[in-house]
Write a structure and sequence with these properties.
Layout: E1 3-8, E2 12-18, H1 21-27, E3 34-36, H2 39-48, E4 54-59, H3 61-72, E5 76-79, H4 86-97, E6 100-101, E7 112-118, E8 124-129, H5 143-147, E9 149-155, H6 162-177, E10 181-185, H7 189-204, E11 209-213, H8 214-221, H9 226-234, E12 239-243, E13 249-253, E14 256-260, H10 273-285, H11 291-306, H12 319-327
Length: 329
């Protein structure tokens, strides 16, 4: 079996709930951002949600993208660490049900969780307790599996731990050794403040495709103008996907600026929009689409995901629908 994409990231169970602004304020977390919390705090948050309707699915940023690639019909694999507990069994079964190959052996301890609190303005506030996902290490990266992939996709969140960072760097090293392309997502603006020099070294070195949003791109480059920002990153990275929220995205490929339109939709939950955009783009470029067509698919996928609850497509794209979208391009 060969893979379109082999992902490396945190293996979490996403627990999503719609809450009021008042409830979010009572929990005293910054709205609209991801906050790392310890297990005790996560249990307190889950207790506060007692009686609130929640949904759960296998998640984590890179996992959302890999599941999205599989959802489109691409072959995908994932390296992430789960616990030998009920949530861990659920996470592995959920990913495998979606067609994702995941062979990293589980560990003793609690499976990581990401509580996603969605307020009426569609903002999502994420509280992440990494659990045993933080123990993913270089020994969990399988060179034989990486060798089968067209792209390795690595999330920036891995850089918050020594073991997970080592796993990310090992995956990138093995990818380059085996002529596999490397896609990297910055993941979150706060990471740039912590790891700017390391990220820049990756962008100037092994990364073939960088995913980032405008805030992240500005933070990386110190440049305000959107196009200038994209061009500066493209001086170092062969390909750039710079997302602009409802305004679409900009792709940089072979020196060309490719503007991708946004998709007009009523947003009710922005969870996973960037992850699903990456899934559409990666599926497209590994399936013979042009970069513009792949960006077009990513944009439509992101538009569809923000119009529903959760980071998993409730209404999948059929092959016929994908073909129709490409014909309209």
């Amino acid at each position: 079996m060969s893979y379109a994409v082999y992902g490396v990231g945190n293996a979490l169970v996403d627990i999503q709930a719609q809450v009021s602004d008042e409830m979010l304020e009572s929990l005293k977390f910054d709205k609209g951002v991801m906050t790392l919390v310890d297990d005790e705090m996560q249990q307190r948050v889950l207790s506060a949600l007692d009686g609130v309707s929640v949904s759960r699915c296998a998640g984590g940023s890179a996992a959302n993208t890999i599941i999205g690639v599989a959802d489109f019909g691409g072959k995908a694999a994932y390296a992430g660490k789960t616990g030998r507990d009920q949530l861990g069994e659920f996470c592995l079964a959920d990913m495998r049900k979606m067609g994702v190959t995941i062979e990293v052996p589980p560990a003793e301890g609690r499976t990581g969780t990401c509580v996603v609190l969605i307020t009426p303005d569609a903002q999502r506030t994420m509280l992440t307790s990494l659990g045993v996902s933080a123990t993913l290490g270089p020994d969990d990266i399988d060179e034989d599996e990486i060798r089968k992939a067209e792209y390795v996709y690595v999330e920036g969140y891995l850089f918050t731990g020594d073991s997970t960072k080592a796993a990310a760097l090992k995956a990138i090293e093995l990818a380059k050794k085996n002529d596999v392309k490397v896609a990297f997502t910055v993941s979150d603006p706060f990471l740039i403040h912590l790891f700017r020099d390391e990220f820049l070294a990756l962008i100037e070195g092994p990364v073939d495709l960088l995913f980032c949003n405008l805030d992240e791109a500005r933070s990386l480059t110190g440049i305000e103008d959107t196009i200038d920002c994209a061009r500066e990153i493209h001086r170092h990275a062969p390909n750039v996907a710079l997302t602009l929220g409802p305004n679409g995205s900009i792709l940089m490929h072979e020196g060309e600026v490719i503007a991708i339109e946004g998709v007009s939709t009523e947003a009710i939950d922005t969870t996973g929009a960037g992850d699903m955009y990456a899934a559409g783009l990666l599926f497209g470029i590994t399936s013979g689409l042009t970069w513009k067509q792949a960006g077009h698919l990513g944009s439509h996928a992101a538009g569809r995901i923000v119009a529903q609850l959760g980071a998993r497509l409730a209404n999948r794209f059929s092959p016929t629908e994908i073909d129709a979208l490409m014909q309209s391009e």
